[in-house]
Amino acid sequence: MQDFFTWLGTTLGDIIRFVVDLLIHFFQNLGDAARGFLQGLSASLGIAPSLVSLLVLLLGLWLLYLALRALLRRRLVATLIWALLGITVLSWLIN
């Protein structure tokens, strides 16, 4: 009877170890993929791969999104304002 529980404990430990190792490798690869994506994005745009520059990039894209929404609602003045602000922020970043 003791051999059965030894085998059961060993098997359960091996399964838990396998799941933990699988999760560790998954999250390491996920982090490496995100890091590679951000470095490729910043290299293609010619910006520094820092958190501030990526936040400014998101801000510029959000402003352009607001311009598109205003255009779809036929608000021409708001479209021009949001587009001008978005292009200005993105030109500061990429320049």
Write a structural description.
This protein is mainly alpha-helical and 95 residues long. It folds into 2 domains: 1-46; 48-95. The chain is 89% helix and 0% strand. It has helices at 2-45, 51-72, 76-94. The longest helix has 44 residues, at 2-45. It is elongated, with a radius of gyration of 25 Å. The mean pLDDT is 90.
Topology:
Layout: H1 2-45, H2 51-72, H3 76-94
Helix pairs in contact: 2-3
Concise synopsis of the structure shown:
By secondary structure, this protein is an all-alpha fold. The protein has helices at residues 2-45, 51-72, 76-94.
Terminal CA distance reads 74 Å
The total beta strand count reads 0
| Strand-pairing-aware structural class | mainly alpha
Q: What's the structural domain tally?
A: 2
Radius of gyration: 25 Å
In DSSP terms (H or I, runs of 4 or more residues), the helix count works out at 3
Ranges with pLDDT <50 over ≥5 residues?
none
Instruction: Estimate the strand proportion.
Output: under 5%
Average pLDDT confidence is 90
Share of helix, binned = over 70%
- Dominant shape: elongated
Sheet with most strands: none
User: What is the string of SSEs from the N terminus onward?
Assistant: HHH
Transmembrane segments: 7-27, 47-68, 75-94
Keywords: Membrane, Transmembrane, Transmembrane helix
Properties at a glance:
3 helices; about 90% helix; mainly alpha; about 100 residues; 2 domains
